[in-house]
């Protein structure tokens, strides 16, 4: 993206204003989840996919629907269940017969052919069905009956997941977890936020978000994120942190497996997107600290000994960050 520096700064400033409006629009629909909204927008601005984890009833589905409206994307939703098949997501071929008796196959697109796919309760489907999204998430295409079919642009998956301890859930395979840019933990709202939610959703008609960006504008914003500079010192800190989080690093005794190169790539993009949301010209150390947990928590597995000793992944990541700084 070869653009003069003064033009880039002006575009950064204009986009920051639009993104602030997008955050406000989402905040009027999903109450008390400012961090979750920020991390979801970061995921989209990076051109990635997000995994929202939390107990039922925390407005995860509502947030994803609102994201589609605010960012002007065509959104489709799939409710994952144990009997869901890969063809229910990707699509299937059916045999048609013309009036003159000729037969031919016709492809019926599945819900994956959208700009924003909401995979609701993704860990309630079987591993076979979960893995049907792997090619779509990485390559932005699907292969059905030997034919490669391109997906719309932009294409994002926002999946919701219940805590793995709940009954009737299947852990996502490591290869699929790694394809999610961020794991966004959705916590219970504060008392004030829950009070505001009650007033807004049970006394009057529920508020609806307004569109702030279009799909073409979103793709331009994603290109602009990649044009933002990142200092060498911050990149070195990212590499030190990611390598510290791997088996063989400083915390090897606590780890069964750790993050691969996709974690470094996620940091490089997410740092810029968060800086853009803050209206800053470049990312800083505070962005790395804020993003370490959502980038690393689904890319790290604690060893049996660490779990037996009561170690927590987020707390361990905090210690890794302290060691890397």
Automatic annotation (TrEMBL):
InterPro entries: ATPase_AAA-3, CbbQ/NirQ/NorQ/GpvN, ChlI/MoxR_AAA_lid, P-loop_NTPase. This is AAA family ATPase. Pfam families: AAA_3, AAA_lid_2. SUPFAM superfamilies: P-loop containing nucleoside triphosphate hydrolases. Residues 49-182 form the ATPase AAA-3 domain. Transmembrane segments: none annotated. It comes from the Bacteria. Residues 254-317 form the ChlI/MoxR AAA lid domain.
């Amino acid at each position: 993206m070869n653009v003069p520096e003064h033009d880039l700064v002006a575009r950064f400033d204009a986009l920051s204003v639009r993104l602030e409006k997008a955050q406000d629009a989402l905040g009027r629909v999903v109450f008390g989840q400012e961090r979750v909204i920020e991390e979801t927008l970061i995921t989209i601005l990076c051109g990635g996919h997000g995994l929202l984890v939390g107990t039922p009833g925390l407005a995860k589905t509502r947030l994803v629907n609102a994201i589609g409206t605010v960012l002007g994307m065509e959104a489709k939703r799939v409710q994952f269940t144990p009997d869901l098949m890969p063809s229910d997501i990707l699509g299937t071929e059916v045999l048609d017969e013309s009036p003159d008796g000729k037969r031919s196959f016709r492809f019926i697109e599945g819900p994956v052919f959208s700009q924003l796919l909401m995979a609701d309760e993704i860990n309630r489907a079987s591993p076979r069905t979960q893995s049907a999204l792997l090619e779509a998430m990485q390559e932005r295409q699907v292969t059905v009956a030997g034919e490669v079919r391109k997906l719309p642009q932009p294409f994002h998956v926002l999946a919701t997941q219940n805590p793995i301890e709940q009954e009737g859930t299947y852990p996502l395979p490591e290869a699929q977890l790694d394809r999610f840019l961020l794991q966004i933990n959705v916590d219970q709202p504060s008392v004030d936020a829950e009070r505001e939610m009650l007033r807004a959703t049970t006394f009057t008609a529920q508020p609806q978000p307004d569109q702030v960006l279009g799909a073409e504008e979103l793709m331009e914003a994603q290109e602009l994120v990649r044009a933002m500079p990142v200092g060498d010192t911050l990149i070195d800190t990212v590499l030190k942190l990611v390598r510290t989080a791997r088996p063989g690093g400083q915390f090897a005794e606590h780890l069964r497996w750790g993050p691969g190169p996709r974690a470094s790539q996620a940091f490089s993009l997410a740092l810029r997107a968060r800086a853009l949301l803050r209206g800053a010209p470049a990312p800083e150390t505070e962005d790395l600290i804020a993003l370490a947990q959502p980038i690393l928590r689904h890319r790290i597995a604690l060893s049996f000994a660490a779990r037996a000793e009561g170690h927590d992944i987020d707390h361990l990541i905090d210690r890794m960050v302290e060691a890397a700084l």
